[in-house]
Amino acid sequence: MTLPSQAFQDDSLDFKELKFFPDLPKRYKIDSVFKFASWAAVVIALSVLSILLIEVAIDGLSMINWQFLTSYPSRKPADAGILSPIVGTIWVMVLVALFSFPIGVGAGIFLEEFIADSFLENVIEVNIANLAAVPSIIYGLLGLQVFVRWLFPLTQGRTIISGALTLTLLVLPIIIIATREALRAVPGSMRQAGFALGATRWQVVRDIVFPQALPGILTGTILALSRGIGETAPLITIGALTYVAFLPPLSLEGLHSTFSVLPIQIFNWVSRPQQEFHLLAAGAIIVLMVLLLAMNGIAIYLRNRFQITR
Amino acid sequence: MTNRSFFPPMADDSLWQPNRGISRLVQRVIVVLFAIFALISVATTCGIVLSLIFETIEFFKKVPLWRFLTDNQWTPLFSNPQYGIFVLISATFLTSVIAILVALPLGLFSAVCLSEYAPAGVRKWLKPALELLAGVPTVVYGYFALLLVTPLIRSFAPWISGFNGLSAGLVLGISITPLIAALSEDAIYAVPNSLRQGSYALGATKRETIVGVVLPAALSGIVASIILAVSRAVGETMIVAIAAGQNPTLGLNPFVPIATMTAYIVQVSLGDTPAGSLAYTSIFAVGTTLFLITLALNIVSFWFVRRFQEKYE
Asked: Which of A192, B257, B288, B300 is the most exposed place for a label (fewest CB within 10 A)?
């Protein structure tokens, strides 16, 4: 037979720890220390990051001029510019957007609207969550093996198209996840209204759900692309060059051109011992950050508009 | 005017074309197409696993597994090659630990501040700012680490090497802080207010409520964000490749040049390595090791979230 007191002791609650702690001023003092610590963390994190960004802006701003933006990289710091990396970045990003937007949105629509709550959806969902956590350099190894070597006849090796396909695989999970969240935010009653009018499921998605979810999808896509723009490691792994003194021709031939992108050029310049190249790197970082800020600004604008209209 | 004009004229049958056949066909085509798109993600996973396994097997045909695990140097490119993977793992471990020591307190306290202390107006600005900082390319952080943080550290301790694990780890920590802060904040913010009010009603102060009620309620989300940040730190490439050096050293000394797993892959990729050579297969062996480590972290995270997730109505 168990006594009530024994029953209490079996309980996981430890009454010694739950002892009433009457010293209220002391508790408030600890409280204010805690509050101070949490504000300090925010201030430290943000100020360290902004000091770093301001420092690079000071270093690089003197580099930004027309000559810097329109010259090719060079061994002589005074002549060096970032024309070919900028053009390479634009090529890669346009291609990644062209590949990843339809595929990512299509996959998201399929998972969310056509096979929601099925076994297959579960499998693909776990798979996508896993992919999103794979380090980017592993995607580089994938691209090196699959696109550069196994698909050599199609891609001609270490070319723009190989880089774009590698980055497409890298950003796809992010776009799919964003698409699904945007679709999930569309109320079910709108779908049912569509069905009531006799539309097929695809017609409902195309004409009712997708337009509603589009701002959210675009936000997610832009954020994913801005992650892709900054990626360096996978492109180094598949063998993008660090010195490119020509522009790819503006045709399908351009797809099979070797290339460089801004982050790789930055990496190359940072790795050199001479101070002049570090300044060039700072200048290129400013260009890259302006590009990213512009993309993020568009994404945030879209999201805010979206939230107001809902 | 008669009542009849209220009714539309009898519909012309030719106007009503319930072309369900074509609609259904279009839908079927679309579904198949989108299914293929969705399966691309599965194909990506298979591609990663296959390409890693393929070259890793080639590597282990030439290098026995026990040497991979027991050698105490990593010099596959030298004439007297050694293949001790733990040399690279120790460097990755060192930079990741330093990073977490920086990012964990900063990120968690920031998350608590944003969710619990910051006024709504401040939070509205700080949250996007954090997300923006989480998107700064890592090559930029590499620049910070090598050209700003390392000189700063060396001005205090000139005996530290120009490439070192310490400044790489510190900057790595700064770079993953926004990630921990943003994701943990989501989890903490999602804890229903009734729990906080219940705790206040029992006489707890704000800190006691946060530490005793809110954080435990958000535990699964917080731990998931930390594990994601750890796997980001382990797989992070550019910061360590730029600032930590390329010099494989066994040990946990943060003041000397080291080479992490990712830095080694970059180092080999920068050189023109012919496919099939030992150097080429070795980056896949290192990549497989890295993949297995992040996969293990991911599985722990999945398990933890499933085990400890709290659902509130």
From this structure: A192
